[in-house]
Prior knowledge:
The complex is a heterodimer of chains A (about 110) and B (about 120). Chain A has about 110 residues and is mainly β. In chain A, the strands form 2 sheets. In chain A, strands 2, 4, 5, 9, 10 and 11 form a 6-stranded mixed β-sheet that branches. In chain A, strands 1-3-8-7-6 form a 5-stranded antiparallel β-sheet, with no helix packed on it. Chain A is globular and about 45 Å long. Chain A has strands spanning about 5, 10-15, 20-25, 30-40, 45-50, 55, 60-65, 70-75, 85-90, 95-100, 105-110. In chain A, strand 7 and strand 8 (about 70-75) form a beta hairpin. Chain B has about 120 residues and is mainly β. Chain B contains no helices and 11 strands. In chain B, the strands form 2 sheets. In chain B, strands 2, 4, 5, 6, 9, 10 and 11 form a 7-stranded mixed β-sheet that branches. In chain B, strand 4 and strand 5 (about 45-50) form a beta hairpin. The model of chain B has no long low-confidence stretch (mean pLDDT about 90). The interface of A and B includes residues 42, 46, 87 and 89 of A.
Amino acid sequence: RKEVEQDPGPFNVPEGATVAFNCTYSNSASQSFFWYRQDCRKEPKLLMSVYSSGNEDGRFTAQLNRASQYISLLIRDSKLSDSATYLCVVIRGSQGNLIFGKGTKLSVKP
Amino acid sequence: EAGVAQSPRYKIIEKRQSVAFWCNPISGHATLYWYQQILGQGPKLLIQFQNNGVVDDSQLPKDRFSAERLKGVDSTLKIQPAKLEDSAVYLCASSSKGGGGNQETQYFGPGTRLLVL
């Protein structure tokens, strides 16, 4: 079993739609959680951190459920510019190494 | 502020040849990482440096891959000899801190896209 698993995608949605991505992690010792965004042929960039209390940044909401080892990302009112691959990232270990999921591709259509 | 610089951006070689990639992290960043991203996968950590010392190289295929950061600033990653399965994007990232509970954001360079024929 992969340490970080994500919805396989791709997700094809119309503009204005709400879309949710799910991610599960297997190592209960994982410490920190993030969502990264990666545009086609570009490097990953930090989208947002994920906290147990849930956090929101504009149209983006991230949630963490430590008991279920589950992370989610909700995008409301999706824009064409949201089209990208969304990577679920978990940090574990004393060195704080990032463990990436395979990513979920989102395509927002007009 | 300048970002993480990598070169070359693209490289095509034949199997069994050697190749080297270069990375210059953000100025002042003590921690440098090399990742391998195979098409359709997330990045996988190969090696982590803290200044000029190796912190974690547990996933580096040491029979063919090597990396160094001699002066604690820029770094090179080498593959010798290359195999077909090494075709991937090699990403360098840096952060101002490494490890511990106070994780700093990692900033990624544009990557080197390697194709082994």
